[in-house]
Amino acid sequence: MMCWRIHLCLLVALVQVFGIAAWTYTDDFVALKSLKDEWENVPPNWDGDDPCGHNWDGISCSDTRVISITLASINLSGHLSSDIKGLSALETLDLSYNKGMTGPLPSSIGNLQELSSLILVGCGFSGPIPSSIGSLQQLVYLSLNSNKFVGEIPPSIGNLSNLYWLDLADNKLSGTIPVSKGSTPGLDMLVHTKHFHFGNNQLSGEIPSQLFSSKLTLIHLLLESNQLSGNIPSSLGLVQTLEVVRLDRNSLSGSIPENLNNLTSVQELYLASNKLTGPLPNLTGMDLLNYVDLSNNPFDVTGIPPWISSLPSLTSLILENTHVEGQLPVSLFSLFQLQTVALKNNRINGTLNIGSNYSNQLQLIDLQNNFVDSFAQRGGYGPQIILVGNPICDEGGTESYCVVPPQTNSSYSTPPENCTPLPCDSDKTASSTCKCAYPYSGNLFFRSPSFSNFGNSTIFASLEEKLMATFMSHSQPVDSVTVSNPTKNEVGYLVLDLQVFPSGQDHFNRTGISRIGFILSNQTFKPPHVFGPFYFNGNNYPYFADVTGGSHKSPSTSIIIGSAVGGSVLFLLLLLAGVYALRQKRRAETAVKKNDPFGSWDPSTRSGGVPQLKGSRCFSFEELKKCTNNFSEMNGIGSGGFGKVYRGTLPNGRLVAIKRAQQGSSQGGLEFKNEIELLSRVHHKNLVSLVGFCFDQGEQMLVYEYMINGTLKDSLTGRSGIRLDWMRRLRIALGAARGVQYLHDLADPPIIHRDIKSNNILLDERLNAKVADFGLSKLMGETESGHVTTQVKGTMGYLDPEYYMTQQLTEKSDVYSFGIVLLELLTAKSPIERGKYIVREVKVAMDKTKEMYNLQGVLDPIVAANMAPGSVEKFADLALRCVQESGLNRPMMSEVVKEIENIMELAGLNPNTESASASESYEEAKKGFEHPYTNESLFAYSGGYTPSKLEPK
Ligand SMILES: *[C@@H]1O[C@H](CO)[C@@H](O)[C@H](O)[C@H]1NC(C)=O
Ligand SMILES: *[C@@H]1O[C@H](CO)[C@@H](O)[C@H](O)[C@H]1NC(C)=O
Ligand SMILES: *[C@@H]1O[C@H](CO)[C@@H](O)[C@H](O)[C@H]1NC(C)=O
Ligand SMILES: *[C@@H]1O[C@H](CO)[C@@H](O)[C@H](O)[C@H]1NC(C)=O
Ligand SMILES: *[C@@H]1O[C@H](CO)[C@@H](O)[C@H](O)[C@H]1NC(C)=O
C-alpha cells in the first residue's frame, strides 16, 4: 500500500519535472540555463524549464525558439558564458546598463548566425573584442560602447555588410583603424554603415586614407578624443553623406585638406585641440553647418575668414586660440540662428560692433584676451559679452563686459503640468504630473548637439515630447518624462538627466524596464535632429515589487525525487526518462520544422531548393494574431483589393503593418513563395520594406515596416495634419521617384509597379517617401509568366490610357501614374474630382507665356505661398511630360529623378541630404502628434500628459 502511494507521488512529480510545460526548444533552454547559472539577480520568474511558455522576463520567443534577450538596468552581474552559442535563433541580445556584467565577450558569440542587434552599452565587459564578431552576417546594430574593451578594432568587422550602427566609443581600444588589405577585411568595406562612433578610446596612428571613399554612406564620423596623428586624409572629402564630423582632441597635424568644403551636408564640424597648421579651412558653401569648433590649433596667422558671416545655419562659432586677427564683421551677428561666438585668445582688434540687427538667439560673445579697443552698443538687452583681457578693459573698466561672469549652469527642469507638486514619501520622486513614483533614471549623452544655448527650454521640452511620443507609440506604461540639468562634459557632449515615470503603478516591472531600456539602447528613440547622435546610460532600477523577496522557487522537486528514489523505483524513473527523451527529440524536430517556413511544403514543388529569404522572417498565425490584438478593428488601418491592413506591435516593440489576404483571394503556395522571394530581394530606402510574412493555417500575410506618417494622400488632403510645403513636396517627389526608378532599373528582375498613386506613397517619421505595394499585383491571385500583356489593373485616374487600350504594360505606364502624382503634389487635388480630370485642368489653365505659366488658379495655396521662383514651372513641365499620351514621349524614371534633382537645386535644396530631417525642428516634432493614426489610440495618453502644453506662444 504505502509503496504504491510513493510511486504515485513520484509519478506526479516526474511528470511535473519533465513533461507538461517543457515547450521551449531544448538547446535554447539548455543554453539559457547555463547563462542563468553564471548570473546573479536574474528575474525571479526565471524558473522551471520553459522560458518561452512561461514568459521569462526579458526573453522573447518565436514559437519555441528564443529570439531575443533584453535585460537592461536590472543589476545583473556575472560573466557571459560561451554557452550563449546554443541560442542559435537569437536575433537580439541587449544586456545594457548592467555594470556588474564583466569579463570577456566569448568568441562563441560568432556562432549566433541570426543575431541582428548586439547591444552591451554601459556594462563592465573587458578584454579584446573577439574577431569572430565578423561572422555575424545579419548584424545591423553593434553597440559595445562604454565598457572596458581593450586591444584593436577587429578587422573582421569589415565583413559585416549589413551593419548600420557601429558604436565602440568609450572603451580602451588601441592600435590603428583597420582597413582592408589583400584578403584581410577592414572598415573601408562597410559601405552601408551610417555610424562610426569610436570616440574616447586610445586609437593611434594615422587615419588611413583608404578608410574613406565615395562608396561610403556614413553620416556620423566620431573619432574624438583618441591619439590619432598624421594628416587628415583628403579622401574624407569624398564621403558626401557626412553630417557630423568629430576629429577633435587628437594629435592630427598638417593642413586641412582643401576639399573639406565639398562635404556640404555636414552640420557639425569639430577639429579642435589638434596640431593642425596651414590656413584655417575654407568652409564656404557648407551651408548646413550649425556648429564649428576649430579651437586650439596652431593655424597660420590669418585674417577673419570670409565664410564666418556667410554660413546661413550657423549657431555656434568656436575658434579659440587659432591665430585669427582683424576686426569682426558686423554681418556675422545677423546670422539669424547664431547663439554663441567664442573667440578667446586671438588677435581680434578694432571695434566690436554687433549692429542692431543681431540674431535674437544670440546668447554669448566671448572675446577674452584679444585686442578690441572699442565697443558699439546698440539698445539695452542683448547677449552676454566678455571683453576681459582686451585694451578696452585695460584701464580698470567697470562695464559689465569687463568682468568675467561667474560660471552658471543653465538649470532646465520640467515644469509641473497644471498641478501642485506635493512632497513625496521617502525615496519616491514627484513627476511633472505631480505623482509620486519610482522613476527609471539615467543620463542621456548627446555627442554633437547643433546648438549651444542650453538655456532654451523649448528645445528640452521638444526632447521630452519626442521621448514621450516614442514610449507611447511602443505602448510602454509611461506616465511622463523629465529631462534636467543640461551640462557639457569635458569632451563637449551635452549630458542630461533623464527620468521616466511609470503609469498606473508607482514602479515599473522588469518587462517595462527592459523594453524602455531597449528603446533607448538600440536607437529606436530618435531625438529631435538638433540633438544629434546620442547614447543613454541607465542606472540600476531597484524598485521592483519583488526585489526584497528574492526568487521564490517552488519547493524543490529534487527533494521529492531524492527521498523517493529507491531501488524499486529506479526502473520507473528510467522508463520515464526514456519517454521524456523521445518526446524532446520529437519536439526538437517539430521546432526545426517550424523554423523552416516552407518545410511543410511539397518538396516536388520546391524548385530551386532553399528559398532565398534575405532578411525577412516567417511569423506564425498565432504571433500575428497576438500582435494585432486578434486582428481587432481598432488596429485596422486600411483595406484594398488584396484584403485588410492592420497595425501590429511585435514583441520587440517594433511597429509593423500587416496585410492579410482575404480568404478566397489568396493564391497558391508556390506563387506566394515566389512573391516573397521577390519582395525580400528588393531593398531601397525609398521602398517600404518587408519585415516578414505568414503562411500558416491557410492564411497569407505580409508584414511591412510601419510608416508613422501615413499616406501622401492623407497629407495632401489635410487629413493627417501635416503641412507639406513646397520643399517637402520636392523631397517627397524625389524619394518616390528614386523608389520607382529602383524598381525599373535596379531590381532584378525589373518590377513594374502598376499601381502608383498617392495612396501608395507612404511617409516615415521624417517625411521620407517610400513606395508601397510593389509586386503585389501578383498576390492578387494572378499568374504572369514574364508576359507584358496582362489584364488591365490599376486605379482610375492614374491609369495610363495607352496601357488601357493596348494592354501592353511597360515601365512608361508607371511613369504616367507618377506624372499624376506630381500633379497632385502641385495642386493637392484628386486625379478625378467632381468629374474633372487633373491632367486636363492643368493643361487648360497653363499658359507658358504668362507669369508662373498662369497656374495660380490651380496651385495648392500652400505651394503658392512658398515656392522657389522657376521651380513650379519646371515641375509642371515635368509632370506634363510624364502624362504624354504616347509612352514613347514620356521620360524614363531615371530622367524624372534627374530633373527633380535639378529642380531642387534650383530651389536651393540639396537633393542628397537625408529628407526633411535636416530641418527637423520642434515644429515638426509637434506636428508628428497629428499624424493620421492619432485618434486610433496609438497615443493612448495616460495621466495628465498633454502635448498641447508645449505649444509655443
Ligand atoms: C567633390 O564631390 C563630388 C561629388 O559631389 C566628387 O565628384 C568630387 O570628386 C569631389 N571633389 C573632391 C576634390 O573631392
Ligand atoms: C573657398 O571655397 C569656395 C567654394 O568652393 C570657392 O569658391 C572659393 O574660391 C574658396 N576660397 C578660397 C580662398 O580658396
Ligand atoms: C587689425 O589688425 C590687422 C592685422 O594685424 C591690421 O591690418 C588692422 O589695421 C588692425 N585694425 C585696427 C583697427 O587696429
Ligand atoms: C529657442 O529655440 C527655439 C527652437 O530652436 C527657437 O525658435 C527660439 O527662438 C529659441 N529661443 C531663444 C530665446 O533663443
Ligand atoms: C508588466 O507591466 C506591463 C505594463 O504595465 C504589463 O502589461 C505586464 O502584465 C506586467 N507584467 C507582470 C508580470 O506583471
From TrEMBL:
CDD domains: STKc_IRAK
Molecular function GO terms recorded: ATP binding; protein serine/threonine kinase activity
Signal sequence range: 1-22
Pfam family, one: PK_Tyr_Ser-Thr
Location of the Protein kinase domain: 631-904
Membrane topology recorded in Swiss-Prot or TrEMBL: Single-pass type I membrane protein
Cellular component terms (Gene Ontology): membrane
Membrane-spanning segments: 559-582
Record bears the keyword Lipoprotein: no
SMART domains: S_TKc
Enzyme Commission number, as recorded: 2.7.11.1
Enzyme category, top tier: transferase
Highest taxon above the source species: Eukaryota
Keyword Repeat recorded: yes
Compartmental location: Membrane
Keyword tags: ATP-binding, Glycoprotein, Kinase, Leucine-rich repeat, Membrane, Nucleotide-binding, Receptor, Repeat, Serine/threonine-protein kinase, Signal, Transferase, Transmembrane, Transmembrane helix
UniProt binding sites for ATP: K659
Family under the similarity heading: Belongs to the protein kinase superfamily. Ser/Thr protein kinase family.
The protein's name in its UniProt record: non-specific serine/threonine protein kinase
Origin species: Sesamum indicum (Oriental sesame)
